[in-house]
Amino acid sequence: MDKKFYITTPIYYPSAKPHMGHAYSSIIADFFARFKRIDGFQVHFLTGTDEHGLKIQRSAEKENFDPKQFCDQISETFRNLSKTLNLTNTDFIRTTEDRHKKTVQYLWNELLKNDDIYLSKYSGWYSVSDEAFYTEDEIEEIDDNKRSISSKSFVEWIEEESYFFRLSKWEKPLLEYYDNHPEFISPLSRKNEVVSFVKGGLKDLSVSRKSFSWGIKVPNDKDHVIYVWLDALTNYISALNYPDKNDKLYKDFWPASIHLIGKDILRFHAVYWPAFLLAAKIELPLKVYGHGWILSGDEKMSKSKGNILDPIEIIKKYGLDPLRYYLIKEVSFGNDGNISQERLEDCINSDLANNFGNLCQRVTAFAIKNCDSLVPKDIEFQNDDLIILNKYKDNLEKIRKKIDNQDINFYIEYIVNSLFEANKYFNDQEPWKKKDDLNRLNTIVYTTLEIVRKISFLLFPIIPESSLKALKIFDLSENDIMLSTIENNEFLTKGNKINKIDILFKKIEKNND
Ligand code: MSP
Q1: pLDDT for residue 59 is more than 80
Q2: How would you write 162-200 as a 3-class SS string?
Q3: Cα separation, 284 vs 277, whole angstroms
Q4: Residues linked to residue 140 through DSSP beta bridges, in sequence order
Q5: For the chain, does the N or the C end have fewer beta carbons within 10 angstroms?
Q6: Is 347 in the pocket of ligand 1 (CB under 6 A)?
Q7: How far apart are CA 271 and CA 203, in angstroms?
Q8: Which atom of ligand 1 lies nearest, measured to the CA of 50?
Q9: What are phi and psi of 198, to 5 degrees?
Q10: According to the model, what pLDDT value does residue 511 have?
Q11: Atom of ligand 1 at shortest distance to CA of 301?
């Protein structure tokens, strides 16, 4: 079966330690990677760190570090965060690695060869924090300081010799591409932003800098380093060993299925990146999805604003799966979302402990006591049972489509409703009153156990550790979770052992003052 899926997160600036915004991008990417894997896809999942440029050079200088040593340290905290978040990334790329540098220089030469790069002089505004150029009408002056209107970061004037990429040449081809590939930029609301930016006219882009040295050298002109965004974006193909087009990774996984990014870096991914690729005659990724921001007190969480929520602290206090569940459920995907510990606690208490954890405990305790700790054998389904059992199979195709449209909200609502229904089914059927109709008692227990198994499968991409704990009821492991088992209606094996499991989620005592 030729089902391949390549997902990327942005590569993070190792200018400071990771915060919740970074954790968010990575957790969402992991959700998609895990879902696709249990749906039979071979998945390549890339994340990493973006280590060149003036922003990093200055951050290192401030700490009296050599930039490479500085990056070594902070990049390691991002690598560790991947482990802490239980990410299933199959690669972690650093832009200071040789494999990456080689690809960037090769791509540069391709662009040069195709006459897409020329030498000239740049003068204009630059934000080091965003590593972005801004025009006069994209900046404003507040208290004698010039800032970018969109990101509010400070800009400084630069004037220097620079190589330019002929971005203007790609204005029309880009607009045509957007038209012919309506889902290339998602969600739709973000596409309109990009299209009107491109329609407004594209100027050639400065793609090298001369006034500092922390970057990849321009081939044949050692006075220049390559613009950090041209360098960084290339990570998506350098990790697949481009330009070796016969390389298995490249052949299997390019074009990427989806670049998942935050909305603030959409222009780089939906305008510059496809223009570079068109110019180098490389296929374009299938989709660029710009998600919203995690807000803290209604503002984007960022180091410069000093309103950072540390994911590690939250995980220490509440555990990883509650954080994953909360970010996936409570931030309406594609939009901004405010996060609060109170809402996180509500999620733990109502959805995870009451709805999921409790269902698992109740049905296993009942089966252990009344069915000899075995999956019941002697069963006869009635209509009520079949309706609830077949629902999953019937909805799988719909779920797949929704996931391919990044409709995470649908997915999680589907699970929450299924859990309500399953609890209601168990309550309404009252198996504890069926002790003199063992066939009926067994059928209800069997049905509820089977639903627990199915919901645990669906929960795996969201709360992997807890889903696996729940599946210990049936002695199932990660290798056993395949959505095709739901599709093929391979029900639980009768007569198998039922295991007691530990409490999945502890309720949080809330102070109601
Ligand atoms: N290095 C570039 C990306 C290069 S990709 C070829 C970069 N790095 S970043 O560390 O500043 O940001 C990485 C990602 O984190 C971006 O997608 C950004 O949108 C996301 N987030 C940073 N703060 C965020 C929030 N407060 N909320 C959600 N995501 C945000 O940009």
Answers
A1: yes
A2: EEEECHHHHHHHHHHHHHHCCCCEECHHHHHHHHHHHHC
A3: 6
A4: 147
A5: C
A6: no
A7: 12
A8: 1
A9: -70, -40
A10: 66
A11: 26
Q: Which residues pair with 93 in a beta bridge?
A: 48
The tokens describing 321, both together, are 């799966």
Ligand 1: which atom is nearest the Cα of residue 300? Answer: 26
Statement: residue 491 has pLDDT above 90: no
Average pLDDT along the chain: 94
Instruction: Give the list of residues 6+ apart from residue 369 with CB closer than 8 angstroms, or none.
Output: none
- The torsion angles phi and psi of 338, rounded to 5 degrees, stand at -85, 140
Contact 375, 495 (CB under 8 A): yes
Q: How far, in Å, from the CA of 458 to the mean position of ligand 1?
A: 28
List CB contacts of 118: < 8 A, sequence separation 6 or more.
163, 164, 166
CA angle 181, 185, 186 (to 5 degrees): 120
Question: What pTM does this model have?
Answer: 0.96
**Is 156 in contact with 126 (CB distance < 8 Å)?**
yes
21, two tokens: 């915004």
Q: Following DSSP, what letter does each residue of 404-457 receive, concatenated?
A: HTT-HHHHHHHHHHHHHHHHHHHHHH-GGG-TT-HHHHHHHHHHHHHHHHHHHH
| The residue to which tokens 């934000």 are assigned | 127
Task: Please state the separation of Cα 326 from the chain's center in Å.
Answer: 14
For residues 421-432, give the mean pLDDT.
97
Is the Cβ–Cβ distance between 81 and 23 less than 8 Å?
Answer: yes
Q: How far is CA 75 from the centre of its chain?
A: 18
Which residue's CA is the closest to the ligand 1 atom numbered 9?
12
AA letter at 390: N
What tokens does 375 get?
Answer: 């999956």
Mutate to test the pocket of ligand 1, among 13, 92, 107, 332 (most ligand atoms within 8 A of CB): 13
The CATH architecture assigned to 341-487 reads Orthogonal Bundle (1.10)
Mean pLDDT of the region 389-412? 96
Do the Cβ atoms of 170 and 279 come closer than 8 Å?
yes
Instruction: Give the integer Cα–Cα distance in Å for 52 and 55.
Output: 8
pLDDT at 510: 77
Q: Helix, strand, or coil here: 258? A: strand
The span from the CA of 143 to the CA of 230, in Å, is: 33
Our answer on whether the CB atom of 262 is closer than 6 Å to any ligand 1 atom is yes
Q: Compute how many other C-beta atoms are within 10 angstroms of the C-beta atom of residue 399.
A: 20
CA distance 106 to 230: 12
- Cβ contact 444:306 at 8 Å: no
